[in-house]
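S., here's the first fold you wanted:
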Amino acid sequence: MHRMGKQQLFRRDFNFIPSVAFVILVQLSWVCFLSANTQGLIDGGIAGLFWSTIWTLVGFLMIISSMAEMASRAPTSGGQYHWVSEYAPPNIQKPLSYFCGWMSVLSWQAGQASSPLLVSGMIQSLISNDNASYDWTNLRSTLIGFPVILIVYILNVYAAHKMPLLQNMMLILYIFGFIVILVTMLVLSPRIQFVDVLTEFSNQGGYSTIGLSLMIGQMTPIFAFLCADSASHLAEEVRDASLTVPRAMFYSFVANAVMGIAMLIAFLVCITDIDAAVNDLTGYPFMWVFRQGMNSAGQNVLACIVILLFFGSTVAFNLSTSRQTFAFARDRGLPFSDWFAKVDSRRQIPHNSIIFTCLFTFVLSLINIGSDTAWGALVSLNVSSLMITYIAAFGCIIWRRIYRPETLPIARWTLGRYGLWINAGAIIYASFAFFWSFWPETLPFEVDTFNWSSVIFVGISLIAIIDYFARGRKHFDGPVTLTEGWRRD
């Protein structure tokens, strides 16, 4: 903190295990493979989803390894925009860091807004599973999501210093739920041959080739491993952060990868009819799989485990989102930065940023009532906005490694001599994922099936650029200006 010119404002309540639990819960990989797989099944089928997950694992291994090393060099809640400011060429660090700060805040806020509706959507699917005549509406989904937002606020404010305990408890449920659901599916549900998981491709999205369809379907595994930077945003509340944060990022990915692949394979071998699964009345293919092997009570018990884990993820997501927002405001990157960056001195939390995050989630939830399309476009920004910050951060560290390696801060968790090559692989994969994140799920597309995230991404980018020239360039200097050695650099 001294090297980065930051004042310690928060209590460091997190050690290694709660930090690992925190990242695991934000990503929630095996739960995502189980519950958020429709796009992968439509575009690529069973085999397509399996193989796209394999190359996504390789890509994210490079992304997470690169970010872990950067977090070791600069363990700050700012994350990518701070790293860009430290490692970019001096003449572009200020505008590029500012743009990345905007994109990172936008990405996390959009992702947080989706979390309560995932909980409410699962609750409605549970009801419709028992009552086929239940009228599932966006209004009901939004109304169910409001109490979730309120509970998340209460926990993140009034139980802030119990968060490590809560993360540990949810990690136990995460592991327990994984074992119970995996074993139950494999024992009770009908199964196909494993060779079908490797070879049965399908293209139900309307694209001209299986290869193109696979590119669209890979959004499912990308979503399952997204938000790997979450640990960095918690860094100022982690003990021995320069070592604990990168270790938590890496080992949580390993744990999520192992459990995610195992759950995905178990789920795929239990899909005996892909059309029936995708078109299940609950909206979730895994509920169709549950129904093939157990009665309603058993289905509901397993679904409740998923709901509880989604709720735990929502709490953790709010924690990371509010810290990211606070950090950018502290560096005067946001309008009304003084208000956003205010810290509750008694609780030692960024109370105002937590309030804003919950209110922003509330407002975006209202959009869901009027339009599925607008809501989906906003939420899908989580992928594209986050990827552009990864690209910028990796590009800057590559530049620094090549042209000014002597100015790099010491990393206690290091990639060693392979660092440059891993960073290069990470930026290539992040660019690849960024490009495909804007494509629609199906063709031919209409207004309600088009992926409007590209339009919104451009719009938000223009707003960020305009704000930079109108306000930001006068108030935002970039966090690098506070670090030791900046004048010398």
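And the second, which I think is the more interesting of the pair:
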Amino acid sequence: MCNLLNNPSNQPDEIRNLEYEYDLMDNVTQRQNHISGLSERFTYDALDRLTQSSTTGKIDDVDYSYAVDYKYDINGNITNKSDVGDYSYNNVNSTHPHTPNSITGLKTNTSNQD
């Protein structure tokens, strides 16, 4: 566990108070913002690739809770992000083999502000 505090010496109030948790491979598994109340969790596969990230919490009665799942191809390229869509790559003779050449199924973000 590690705490990170940002508080410029001329400012009386904390602007950030973050607490981190790590797994045995030093991947961040949780980040808690003690000022905003938001909490983030991160899950990884056996190759230490991020497979899910989630955020929970509210700020000023606005719910910021959501989760994103990540999928990869054999080369380690992201092939799907649940909040965006599918990524495809042109790896043949490409000077940028890890740059997506298209993203399909783009999701639109909707917020529930009551």
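Why I say that: The chain has a mean pLDDT of 83. The chain is about 0% helix and 50% strand.

Talk tomorrow,
H.
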